[in-house]
């Protein structure tokens, strides 16, 4: 069966209570309250600041899938897509019923609620939870390991966002979605569990290439035993890293949200139908690796904007995601002493061209740019 849900059908199940980049613990709690009559919601621990961490359990099948999102608090796109996926499973679609019959899915929608509320990568103790897999010094790390050991999953989905800097290979295509089958040793050998991870990524890539051709990347597979994905791969559980990236003009990551939903749906459907081995390992290696060749904005003829003769002719900006009054603002930061010829840009304006200057002035970040010089 086709596992691409048309956009019109997707809009019907898209969770309307969450939108944009900022997703707080309170927003997640409200969503959990809305589905508690249909699925098992369980408190499994507390964060550093004593915020509740929950799991959602769906389905009754023998194949077990564990997902967790917002391990990094400022990486919310996959959480939105997970809610959309849950809403799909609430429908009476044949594929939804089949997934729930064949699989048991346990989801931690927000592992790092303190980081989510503050919109930071780290937790309240300023620890990166994805570098705490071995020592487990943080309560959130302990929660994840406890859930993993109690559930004994057959598959793990480790759900993240990546920055706008990533492109696919050497091309000017943004890495809108990236995947990784984490290594389980320094040699990056292909263990049985890693091979399964690779095949499942190939399945999801096949679907995404129909939607965003050449905009899927493969994340760096350097081994780090302190990373959760590498650790679970070492424990012989096929684990997949999802990275939600940039789509043109989609800083709120609502387009990317749809593609992550499609990847989740395809991946779980392939598992449900026991079709993972229909996909080949070689195709995984053919997915281009990510590179960091993008900046957000290039301005040409900048003197036309500033009126200052000592202003450089061209300059580039990276946007810093900043939480201001409960909303994420994209604050431009001037990138100095870089070779602009080595980068691609998500937007380019020529300040000497009237239409470009008018378009630039219509952007929310324009008032901050002149002060950068």
From TrEMBL:
Its cofactor is Zn(2+). Its EC number is 3.4.17.-. Keywords: Carboxypeptidase, Hydrolase, Metalloprotease, Protease, Zinc. SUPFAM superfamilies: Zn-dependent exopeptidases. Pfam families: Peptidase_M14 (PF00246). It comes from the Bacteria. GO terms for molecular function: carboxypeptidase activity. The active site is at residue 243. Belongs to the peptidase M14 family. This is M14 metallopeptidase family protein. It comes from Euzebyella saccharophila. The lineage of its organism: Bacteria, Pseudomonadati, Bacteroidota, Flavobacteriia, Flavobacteriales.
């Amino acid at each position: 069966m086709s596992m691409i849900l048309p956009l019109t059908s997707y809009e019907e199940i898209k969770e309307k209570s969450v939108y944009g980049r900022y997703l707080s613990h309170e927003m997640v709690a409200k969503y959990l309250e809305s589905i508690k009559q249909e699925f098992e919601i369980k408190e499994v621990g507390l964060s550093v600041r004593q915020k509740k961490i929950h799991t959602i359990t769906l389905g009754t099948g023998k194949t077990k899938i564990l997902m967790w999102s917002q391990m990094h608090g400022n990486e919310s796109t996959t959480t939105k897509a997970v809610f959309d996926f849950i809403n799909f499973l609430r429908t009476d679609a044949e594929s939804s019923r089949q997934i729930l019959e064949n699989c048991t899915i346990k989801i931690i929608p927000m592992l790092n609620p303190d980081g989510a509320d503050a919109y930071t990568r780290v937790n309240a103790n300023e620890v990166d939870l994805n570098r705490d897999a071995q020592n487990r010094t943080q309560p959130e790390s302990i929660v994840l390991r406890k859930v993993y050991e109690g559930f004994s999953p057959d598959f793990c989905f480790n759900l993240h966002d990546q920055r706008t800097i990533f492109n696919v290979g050497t091309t000017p295509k943004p890495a809108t979605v990236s995947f990784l089958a984490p290594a389980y040793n320094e040699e990056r050998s292909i263990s049985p569990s890693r091979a399964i991870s690779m095949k499942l990524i190939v399945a999801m890539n096949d679907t995404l290439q129909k939607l965003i051709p050449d905009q899927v990347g493969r994340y760096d597979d350097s081994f780090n035993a302190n990373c959760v994905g590498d650790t679970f791969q070492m424990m012989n559980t096929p684990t997949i890293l999802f990275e939600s990236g940039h789509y043109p003009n989609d800083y709120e990551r609502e387009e990317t949200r749809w593609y992550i939903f499609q990847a989740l749906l395809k991946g779980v459907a392939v598992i449900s139908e026991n079709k993972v081995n229909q996909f080949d390992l070689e195709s995984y290696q053919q997915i281009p690796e990510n590179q960091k060749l993008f900046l957000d904005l290039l301005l040409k003829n900048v003197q036309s904007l500033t009126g200052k003769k000592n202003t450089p002719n061209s300059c580039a900006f990276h946007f810093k995601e900043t939480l201001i009054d409960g909303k994420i603002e994209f604050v431009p930061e001037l990138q100095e002493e870089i070779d602009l010829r080595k980068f691609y840009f998500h937007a380019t304006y020529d300040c000497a061209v009237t239409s470009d200057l008018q378009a630039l002035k219509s952007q929310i970040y324009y008032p901050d740019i002149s002060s950068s010089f």
